[in-house]
TrEMBL record:
The keyword Cell membrane applies. GO terms for cellular component: plasma membrane. This is Sugar ABC transporter permease. It comes from Paenibacillus antri. GO terms for biological process: transmembrane transport. It is found in: Cell membrane. InterPro entries: ABC_transporter_permease (IPR051393), MetI-like (IPR000515), MetI-like_sf (IPR035906). Residues 76-289 form the ABC transmembrane type-1 domain. The chain crosses the membrane at residues 20-44, 80-101, 113-133, 162-188, 209-233, 273-292. It comes from the Bacteria. The keyword Transmembrane applies. Signal peptide: none annotated. Belongs to the binding-protein-dependent transport system permease family.
Amino acid sequence: MKKTFWNRKRRENAAGWLFIGPEVFGMLLLSVFPLGFSLALSFADWNLVGGVSSIRFVGWDNFIGLWEDDRFLKALRNNVLFTAATVPGVIVIALAMAAVIHARLYFQSYFKIAFFVPYICSTVAIAAVWSALFHPSKGPVNQILIQLGVTDPPKWLVDTSYALVAVMIIYVWQLIGYKIIIFIAGLSNIPNELYEAASIDGAGTMGQFWHVTLPLLGPTTFFLTITSIISSFKVFDIIKFLTNGGPNDASTVIVYQIYEEGFQRFNMGYASAMSWVLFLMIVLVTSVTWIVQNRKVHD
């Protein structure tokens, strides 16, 4: 019997490649190429307005210049403070509220929806609402503080000492509903028999929480911590709409600096160097958190 080139196996392989071909092409065009191009640009000086012909290789100058740039160092410090404050804050508050909603509250479905709504709302709408709430003289927040006896309340979004704090509060408020839903899902998977056994052994409510709930929520907490760290380093939209990084760069972060350098000053080489420093920071922090928490989860 004569063998044909297009046998059944080759036809199936060709069909498979035809199905995944568009996906592979899209990934190469939209992910791999921009990644490699930005890495090459980080070692170059390129003004976007001058066209591709104006690209000039400068070696490590962009990376060296970052550590002599006061605005970048301030953005780096703000980013570290933002992550250090918001990640533990949102995890602890969400866990406490999820435990209360799961165990002791009526109308659980209502509270789940009520807390989740800010997460799916437009950032522009959230920024508009909070800019009114944090208005220095007429905002409800400062009106309440004045009623409580605070004679000189913070100016919040226009105050160099409180602008980043105000953004942190809004960021935590926006994301907390998503974390609560994930924690409630984790709590629902803990068997009641474990709580009954702990109660027979004499454990109270707090004892059951520390010795049953927290250990069994380890994988859930681990997942939320990793995603929260990555999300906190990428914060941009809420800062863009509320403060534009101000006042006096008090609320600027690295992603906002990348936006300013790349799309306002058109300094694409310098912006690419910032992007790769941010990428390496996220990889480093995520890897350390992954190693430490993975050991705790599986101990």
